[in-house]
Amino acid sequence: MPFSTLPEEKKPPDSSDYTNIYNQSTTDSYDTEEAHSNCGSTVFSSVADNSSTSSGPEPPQVKPTVDRRFHPERMYPSHFTPDDIQVRRGECVLLACPGSKRKCPHCNCHVCHTGCIVIAVDGACHRNGQPGARASVGVYHGFESNWNASYLLSSEENQTNQVAELVACETALIDARLMHEYGEKYGIEDRKLSIVVIKSDSEYVVRGMTEWIEKWKTNGWLNAKGQPVANREYFFRIDGIVESLEKKYVSVKFWHVPRELNKEADKLAKAALCEV
User: Where is this region: Disordered (predicted)?
Assistant: First the structure.
């Protein structure tokens, strides 16, 4: 079973070229040949095209930026639904292969890759923006997974919905890094990651990590008004984890979904508030 529970002492206490990244990961397949029959080499190209077709002197060389946004509409055939893209196997959720032409007749799922995981995150806050607010975190790896998380934010944290969503994202990425390091350390190929997709219904988190963060970093973590970026310490830590994974050739993507497609993480976040 992919990503089964780590030994207790390893349980968490609380880019280069990604071309053909699917083909580098292990296929969990009833028909491996079919799975890769239609995987184009650019299906997961992560580098934005900053080139210009205009004539005249060449502009200064600009370092290419990594596109961290997950774009299923660009990668999968139009008939793939969000449920088709996410293949639930054991205690984790894996990405379906874009080249899969048909579902398994037994499990009704497309071919998937064990190194490409989806982690759903969410935050909740009782009395958000009011005195006495309490916020909580939900992280969903898979059905009854020991990696799932549901807990209240520390009283030392700002008790807001946005902070809870950022902490959930950070927690999920710490989990992913632990999984990958475990696979590397013990030479377990199907636990080494190629792609980590963070699924969130928070536009704030997804746009922050895919659109705004490079501008903030360039501006010294100041926003367009010249003021310090709100919650910058969380974005700073998340960005550091993402970069550490990218250095290990693990592509990190952020997927913005409607709330109704993030029910599992939402349920975990709200469950923690029942303790209040």
Answer: 1-70
Amino acid 174: pLDDT: 98
Give the H or E element holding residue 85: helix 82-85
d(CA 210, CA 189): 29
pLDDT cut 70: percent of the chain above it: 72
Name 132's Cβ contacts closer than 8 Å, sequence gap at least 6.
Answer: none
Q: Which two tokens stand for residue 222?
A: 């100041």
The domains found in the chain, sorted by start residue, are 16-49+61-273 (3.30.420.10)
Q: Where are the alpha helices (DSSP H) in 160-231?
A: 161-186, 203-207, 213-218
Q: How far is CA 233 from the centre of its chain?
A: 19
Residue 239 near residue 247, CB atoms below 8 Å: no
CB atoms within 10 A of CB 207: 14
